């Protein structure tokens, strides 16, 4: 407990991740590729990575689709993204190492301020850390290797396990919109995890993604596979310092839970304000499998993230939980999509959003029940806390039910912090800032309790810092 309080105190004196990490620094890179996205650029990325021909050809197919597909109508802030002005591949002047002492000091300091080495020592069995376009730190405990678990930087997995990677790579999430195709052409970094049949990994694995400078695009690709009866929990962390301009994040996560497996994916996104954040996330659940998503979306100027599950086999289930914080004149979408394709499948979606100081938080979701998915069950619950009159929340559910035996329900609530609540807590010794933060934490408390304790501590502190100092109430 004392160790966790020490970890919490690391960020107790700052108001945001931008204050914690400071203004972006200038770094020199081994390679930088920027400008118009052409066949030559894609070929050069593939050559630099030493990829097999199948991956080079996949990238080129994705480029063709990107050039043909229209821009999605539902995307805001896309006009702010000048793809030709961005660096699409930034390779740091360091190779992947397995000791934090070997990470260049100016980069290591970022991860130390975020408490990553401490969390790894206390809670993780495997960790990869990405800086801009490449994994620069990677460590897998020997225990996992003895169990036959594969956890590798994606570039390495593509070369060492090509047949295994090809079974899943952009097959769980095909290039169905323009930005997914763009990702497929430019992807760099990410991790591949495979857990053999019947193997249960009780401690989490993690990959942490960091954007170091303005005017970069980061497009990591991660795949997490739990084979029959296996169990794995993967944590995805994201952050950036205070950027002087903007950067574009367009990552992808593909998950696959084979028959009877359990796959948990937890994301803690704590971006700085000048990140435009797109995510492409989907998992498949076979018969009797379970997929759990937890998505904590803090920071960024614009976010689109819709964790999705395809319930492919009979008795498969999913739970998708989201926390969205929109503080300031920013637009955040954190939704969920579920496809019920087999009988007796079930889904539960819980989305909590907090809006303040002109922020807009949006839940956009889809529940699809295919004809023949008998006795499917789905429940969606959206709870919103709106902290002032300048802010807003929107709930945009879309139910597509083609099976008469299915039961699909949706409920939504919206509330505010009243003066009475503040006065009640003030009378019991709380300062006004502490009272506001306590009410917000109580609002999301049922979600925080499901996180690994170390991450619940850190995320709760981040939420306190975001919402403890508000200009006015009501």
TrEMBL record:
Protein name: FeS assembly protein SufB
Ranges of residues in domain SUF system FeS cluster assembly SufBD N-terminal: 140-205
Transmembrane segments: none
Family classification: Belongs to the iron-sulfur cluster assembly SufBD family.
Domain SUF system FeS cluster assembly SufBD core as annotated: residue spans: 211-443
One GO BP: iron-sulfur cluster assembly
Domain of life: Archaea
InterPro entries hit by this protein: Fe-S_cluster_assembly_SufBD, SUF_FeS_clus_asmbl_SufB, SUF_FeS_clus_asmbl_SufBD_core, SUF_FeS_clus_asmbl_SufBD_sf, SufBD_N
Organism: Pyrobaculum neutrophilum (strain DSM 2338 / JCM 9278 / NBRC 100436 / V24Sta) (Thermoproteus neutrophilus)
NCBIfam families, A to Z: sufB
């Amino acid at each position: 407990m004392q160790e966790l309080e020490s970890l919490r105190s690391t960020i107790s004196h700052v108001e945001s991740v931008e204050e914690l990490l400071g203004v972006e620094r200038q770094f020199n890179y081994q390679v930088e590729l920027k400008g118009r996205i052409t066949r030559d650029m894609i070929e050069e990325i593939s050559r630099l990575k030493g990829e097999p021909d199948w991956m080079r050809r996949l990238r080129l197919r994705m480029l063709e689709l990107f050039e043909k597909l229209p821009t999605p109508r539902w995307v805001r802030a896309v006009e702010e993204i000048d793809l030709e002005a961005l660096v699409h591949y930034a390779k740091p002047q360091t190779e992947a190492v397995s000791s934090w002492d070997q990470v260049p000091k100016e980069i290591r300091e970022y991860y130390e301020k975020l408490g990553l080495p401490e969390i790894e020592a206390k809670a993780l069995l495997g960790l990869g850390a990405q800086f801009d376009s490449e994994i620069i730190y990677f460590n897998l405990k020997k225990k996992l290797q003895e169990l036959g678990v594969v956890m590798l930087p994606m570039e390495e997995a593509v070369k060492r396990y090509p047949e295994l990677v090809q079974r899943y790579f952009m097959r769980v999430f095909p290039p169905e919109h323009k930005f997914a195709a763009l990702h497929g052409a430019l992807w760099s970094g990410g991790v591949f995890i495979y857990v053999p049949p019947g193997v249960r990994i009780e401690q989490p694995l993690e990959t942490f993604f960091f954007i170091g400078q303005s005017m970069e695009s980061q497009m990591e690709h991660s795949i997490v596979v739990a084979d029959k009866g296996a169990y794995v929990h993967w944590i995805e962390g994201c952050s950036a310092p205070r950027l002087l301009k903007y950067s574009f994040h367009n990552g992808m996560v593909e998950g696959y839970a084979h028959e009877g497996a359990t796959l948990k994916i937890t994301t803690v996104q704590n971006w700085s304000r000048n990140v435009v954040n797109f995510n492409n996330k989907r998992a498949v659940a076979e018969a009797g499998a379970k997929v759990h998503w937890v998505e904590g979306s803090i920071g960024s100027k614009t976010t689109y993230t819709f964790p999705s599950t395809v319930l492919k086999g009979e008795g498969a289930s999913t739970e998708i939980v989201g926390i969205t914080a929109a503080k300031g004149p920013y637009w955040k979408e954190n939704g969920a999509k579920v496809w019920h394709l087999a009988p007796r499948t079930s889904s539960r979606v819980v989305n909590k959003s907090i809006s303040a100081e002109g922020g807009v938080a949006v839940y956009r979701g889809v529940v699809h029940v295919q004809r023949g998915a008998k006795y499917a069950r789905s429940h969606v619950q959206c709870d919103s806390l709106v902290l002032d009159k300048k802010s807003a929340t929107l709930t945009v559910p879309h139910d597509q039910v083609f099976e008469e035996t299915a039961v699909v329900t949706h409920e939504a609530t919206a509330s505010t912090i009243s003066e009475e609540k503040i006065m009640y807590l003030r009378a019991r010794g709380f300062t006004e800032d502490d009272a506001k933060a306590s009410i917000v934490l109580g609002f999301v408390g049922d979600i925080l309790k499901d996180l690994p304790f170390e991450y619940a501590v850190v995320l709760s502190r981040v939420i306190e810092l975001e919402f403890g100092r508000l200009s006015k109430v009501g």
